[in-house]
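Protein modeling request. Please complete all fields; requests missing the sequence field cannot be processed.
Requester role: graduate student
Desired output: 3D structure, C-alpha cell encoding
Chains: 1
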Amino acid sequence: MAKRRFKNKKVRYVAIGASLVTGAAAAAVLLPSANAAEELTADQIMRKCERAAVLNGKKQTTADFGGGLGDGFESDTCDFVETKFETFDGPTEKVTVDFPNCEPNATAPAKVTTEFSKAIGQGQGKYTSTQQGALGGLFGALSGSWVKHKGTLDMTVKTATASESEQREVPVGKVMHVTFTPKIQRMTGEWRVHVDAREATTTTNATPEQNFVAPEVVEGPVILASAAGTPGLADGTSKVVLEDC
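Delivered output (245 residues):
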C-alpha cells in the first residue's frame, strides 16, 4: 500500500455528552426551561429515537424496531444532524514480525516479503451500536450522512481491513519491521427527537410539544474506493522501521 493518508425554546432539553476518545462517563445537562418538560435519560431519548414514526426522513413500521402487536411509536420524528466531520491519524501499530539481517558474514541486503492484514473496528458511537430490523438500527439511519464524504463508511459491517504484501530489502546490520497508521474519520452531531403536541380527548389529557437532544460522536476508518461488489480496504500509511542489530 502506498503512503497516503437539530422549536421550542420553552422545552427542557436533555443533552448527553459522549466521549469516545477518553472513555469518560456521559453527563446529563439540563438546560433552563420555562415549563416542566419530561426529563429523560440518554437511553430513554434514544429509545424514543429508535421508535420514531419517521427516522431520519424514512417512515418506519413497528417491525423496523422489533415491535410486536399492540406496540406503537414513541415519538413522531428523530433526525441526526451532523455538526462536524474530520479525519485524522489513528494509533500506529507494529503489524509485522522483525526481519533481521544480522549474520556476521552478511554482505548484501536481505530480500524479504512483508505481509500484514489489520482489522480496524468501525461504527463506534455511544448510541449507534444498537441494531434493529430492516433499517439496521441507528447505524442504518446514519448511512446517508456518511455518503456525503469521500471516505464512505459501510455501516453494515463491524470491521474494515487494511492489507499489504510488499517485497523489501533489509540492509546489512539492521532489523526491519513495518508499522501501519490507519486514517480515521469522525462524525459529530445530534440526535433530535420530536414529539408533536396532542389535543385532549375523552380519555387522555392534552400534551405539549416536546423536543430532546442527544449529542453523538461516531468514528470509523476511512475506506478506499473498491470495485463493485467487493469490500473497500481501510486507508492508512505503512512505514518501514529499521533498527540496529
